[in-house]
Every structure is written in C-alpha cells, then in structure tokens.
Design a protein that fits this description.
Elements lengths: L10 H13 L6 H14 L4 E4 L2 H11 L7 E5 L5 H8 L3 E5 L10 H5 L6 E7 L8 H5 L5 E4 L7 E2 L2 E2 L6 E5 L12 E5 L2 H10 L8 H8 L20 H12 L1 H19 L5 E2 L15 E5 L2 H10 L25 H9 E4 L7 H15 L1
Parallel strand pairs: 2-3, 2-4, 4-5, 5-8
Antiparallel strand pairs: 1-9, 6-7, 8-9, 10-11, 11-12
The protein binds pyridoxal-5'-phosphate.
Pyridoxal-5'-phosphate binds next to helix 3 and helix 4.
Length: 368
C-alpha cells in the first residue's frame, strides 16, 4: 500500500537514538535544550520550548494567553480536532469559521463574520503549510494563536509561520515534515511567556530539586517551588535526538517533497475534474505538508485509488459537523464543500518515483 503520509528516518536518526539510549538518559534532558536552540535559530524565533505534542502545545498556548474564562476563540472549522479540543479544555468556547475554498485558509472576512462581544482570540491554521494572509487578520486587533503544525518550513513575508502572532505552535508527530516520533513546540513574541511555558510543561514546577537546593534549601534538595497547577507535557531526550537530526535534514526532506509536489502540479494540471492546491504568494514559502486536491466524484476516486493500493485521506472532516461541539446547525459553505471535494493524495519523502508515477497514472485513469 502506498501511504498518504510517512516519515524518513535513516542511519543518523538511528545513531542519535542509540547514543541517547547508551547514555541511559531517556527522559527530559540536554538533547531537548540543544534542539530548542537549533530550532529557534533556524526559524529565527525569539524563544522556543519543546513539548510532547502539538496538541498539548495548543493547550499550553491558550493557557499562556490568559484569556477570560468562557470567552470565545474563533477557530477555522477545516482543521484537526486538537484545535477545538484545546480551546474547550482551556475553559473557552470554540466558534467555528469558514475558510477560503481555494487556499483552504482562514481569511479576515471569515473571522469577522464570527466576532462577538465575547470574542477573546483568533486561532489561525496555516493549512497544508500555505501561509495565511496575516495582515488583514492582525488588523482585527485580537490576540492571535498561530497553528503552524503544518508549517515548520513556511514563511510569510520572510517570517517563519508561527512567529507572526502572539503565540505559535508546531507539531513534530510521526507524519510531520520534521518528526520526533511524537513532539511539539511553542513560540511567543514575548520570551517571558516561553519561560513560563518551560515551568508549566513540568507540572508547573519552577525549578528542579537540584536547582532549588543550589538556590537556598541545601539540606532539603527534594523541595521545589510550584508556580501554578499544570499537567505534564515534557518532551524526552529520545524525541529531541530524532528531531535534532531531522532539523539538520530539513532542507533535504523538503526538497524531496517539493519535487513530488511539482510533479503532481505538472502532470495533473490538465485534468478538468480536479483543482490543484493553491500556491504561496510572491515572497512567501509553502511548507508542503499535504497535497490536497479538490476532486469531482471525490469518494469514488478515493475508493478507486484504494483498490489500486494507494491510500488517500480527507484532512480534515470539518469540526462544525461534529456533534460534540454543538454547532451542527451552522452553515460554513466552503468547509462543507471541502468535506465532499477535498482529498489529500500521498506526499512524503519516502515515496519512490515509481510510487509517484503510479499515483499520477491511477488518477488519470480514473478521469479518462
Ligand atoms: C493543524 C494541526 N494542529 C495541531 C495538530 C496536533 O499535533 P500533534 O499531532 O503533534 O498533537 C495537528 C496534527 O495533525 C494538526 O494537523
């Protein structure tokens, strides 16, 4: 089966994990700090903290934003469930907005349609890695949480996606452009927020027992200052070891994705029944996470591809259609259209040329 997603880990990642295991230091440790520094440097971030997942980074971000309890956060409905779950779990209310049919990204007008006296923040998602047009959204004057889970290599007006709003998050899960197996990260315009994040991720503990001992409790080093209550979302040395190697390989991994992307663009563009993904604007850079087409007879195409051994998927079933959130009565026409037309076809660095040829051939055969 040709999979829609996949990672590419090689000898260097295996060696980094082995070295970590040989050191017997598997949990949180020095590898995390060196990954944090290298990641912040590559993206040009003021500050950055790694956590154990992008989903938890979203929850942490909302906590750091100190939004009034019960207030509304506007969330594009065409995104992964964690975006809404984090809002709910932070004691806030997600209000789902529509996205642009072509870019699949949220626009200022979509947000405006959902503003209320109770709106406290906007979540933007750089869907597939295509940078959101941030300036019009910034003009709305509300705090912005940027979900850059797909956008580790995306740039908007030369700035790293994730670093434009007030707080930004990244995901390093098993299928992302840069993987740690599982992992995530958070950045903020205000470095003090990231200092706080570093305490929060360890159950809100301000300092380790050894630091506390050094700082004034020499006889009772097992005591520690707890700054505020929080859950544990510490990343491991193992995950950071993988992520550090992936970061050094990011250009190579992105080049492979770009080559496949360009081949799809060139060889699928004459099929009238499908619409290819939007391109990044001049000066911007697409992060190339998922190649999402809009297709006539989408379900039949997905089934035909599956029969031919090619696994595709919809990223993502729009959130307002899910009963949990109690907004099923709302109409978000573009999200609903994407729900029946959108399809992510395989894109990852381990696809072979033969795989790509087969995918293109099967799509062409379907519409012949
Ligand atoms: C847009 C978006 N945000 C957040 C996440 C959560 O990231 P993680 O899987 O690392 O928890 C994902 C995961 O796919 C995502 O697609």
């Amino acid at each position: 089966m040709i999979s829609v997603f996949g990672s590419d880990v090689g000898d260097a990642e295996i060696e980094a994990v082995s070295a970590c295991m040989r050191s017997q230091w598997l949990g949180f440790g020095k590898n995390v700090e060196s990954f944090e520094n290298a990641f912040a440097e590559r993206l040009g971030l003021a500050s950055f903290a790694m956590v154990d997942s992008g989903s938890n980074a979203l929850f942490l971000a909302l906590h750091l934003m100190d939004l009034p309890r019960g207030s509304e956060v506007i969330v594009p409905a065409f995104t992964w469930v964690s975006c809404a779950q984090a809002v709910l779990l932070a004691g806030l209310k997600p209000v789902f907005c529509d996205v642009d049919l072509h870019t699949m990204n949220v626009r200022a007008g979509d947000v405006e349609a959902c503003l209320s006296y109770n709106t406290s923040a906007i979540m933007v998602v750089h869907y597939a890695g295509l940078p959101v047009e941030m300036d019009e959204i910034q003009k709305l004057g509300l705090p912005i949480l940027e979900d850059a889970a797909h956008a580790v290599d995306s740039r908007w007006r030369e700035r790293a996606c994730g670093s434009i709003g007030d707080v930004g998050i990244y995901s390093f899960d098993a299928v992302k452009n840069l993987t740690a197996g599982e992992g995530g990260g958070i950045t903020a315009a205000d470095p003090e927020r990231i200092q706080r994040a570093k305490h929060l991720r360890y159950c809100g503990i301000g300092k380790s027992g050894f630091d506390t001992a050094a700082d004034g409790a020499p006889n009772r080093w097992w005591e520690y200052a707890i700054r505020e209550p929080f859950i544990k979302m510490l990343p491991t040395n193992l995950a950071a070891a993988i992520a550090s190697v992936q970061l050094t390989r990011l250009n190579e991994l992105q080049e492979r994705r770009r080559a496949i992307w360009q081949r799809y663009d060139a060889e699928l563009s004459d099929i009238d029944q499908i619409v290819l993904p939007a391109k990044a604007g001049p000066g911007d850079r697409h992060g190339l996470f998922t190649y999402c087409i809009r297709a006539e007879e989408r379900d039949a195409l997905a089934h035909a591809l599956l029969e031919a051994g090619i696994y595709t998927t919809l990223r993502y079933h729009p959130l307002h259609l899910n009963e949990l959130y109690g907004q099923t009565g709302r109409t978000l026409p573009n999200c609903e259209r994407l729900n029946v037309e959108a399809l992510s076809i395989p894109l990852h660095p381990r696809l072979s040329e033969t795989d790509v040829e087969q995918i293109i051939a099967e799509i062409r055969r379907f519409y012949r």
